Amino acid sequence: MKKILLVEDEESLINVLTLNLELENYEVDVATTGKNALTRFNDSYHLVILDVMLPEISGFDVCREIRKTSHVPILFISAKGTSADRINGLKLGADDYLVKPFNLEELLLRVAILIDRQKSEMLPDVYYFDGHEVNFKTFEIKANGQLHTVSKREMELLKLLISKKGEVVSRDLILDTIWGKEQFPTSRTIDNYILSLRKYFEKDNRNPQYFKSLRGVGYKFETKS
């Protein structure tokens, strides 16, 4: 279970976020002051959700202190929504900045993206499965006795699916992680990328063993062993 440190002093928001994060199978610890956040923080957390305006020590200062010793993903949530505030937060080392009031589904999606990105970064440079080889550094794959060089986006999709092996990855998560919010590919675009991966690895594209589609839900990477 992934652990999240929620640093927020508004009780109603704490209750809503804690409930919804736990429904997504995250373990949530809460700190209501900046000082308490620094006391509680340790390397066991997979993400910090951090308000800016906190008692005792500001969220910006908490972020600055955490970044001295840790690369844990940090998501700011704040009513301070000017460009200067967002830029300041990102310069201090935060990974994302969400302005209050925010859409709950968007927050949950950003949380998933940040945690999955951390999982992807933990993968080895070369990944092996069922006699196939994926080199994330050189963008080369060896599959079914052939060597291929793939595009950056193909490799990003491959890395995301491998990092969530055995789990269903939604279209929304793929779009936000790989294409971002500034681009608007169609669902067919993702299908075409999945087809490309199947051409490399699958012996029968119509009966895929590794890259499976779940209609209306998303995609899943599985291995035989």
* Alpha-beta classification: alpha/beta
The largest sheet is: 5 strands, parallel
- The neighbouring-strand order within the major sheet is 2-1-3-4-5
Shape: elongated
Instruction: Report mean pLDDT, rounded to a whole number.
Output: 90
| Name of the top-level CATH class of the largest domain | Alpha Beta
- Give the count of helical stretches: 8
User: What is the beta-strand fraction?
Assistant: 15-25%
CATH architecture identity of the largest domain: 3-Layer(aba) Sandwich
What is the number of E strands? 12
Low-confidence stretches: none
Count of structural domains = 2
Characteristic key phrases:
Arc Repressor Mutant, subunit A; 8 helices; 40% helix; elongated; single chain; 225 residues; 12 strands; Rossmann fold
Write the layout of secondary structure elements.
Blueprint lengths: L1 E6 L3 H13 L2 E6 L2 H7 L6 E5 L7 H8 L7 E5 L4 H9 L4 E4 L4 H18 L4 E4 L2 E4 L4 E4 L2 E4 L2 H12 L4 E3 H9 L7 H15 L9 E4 L3 E4 L4
Parallel strand pairs: 1-2, 1-3, 3-4, 4-5
Antiparallel strand pairs: 6-7, 7-8, 8-9, 10-12, 11-12
Helix pairs in contact: 2-3, 5-6, 5-7
Tell me briefly what this model is.
The chain is an alpha/beta fold and 225 residues long.
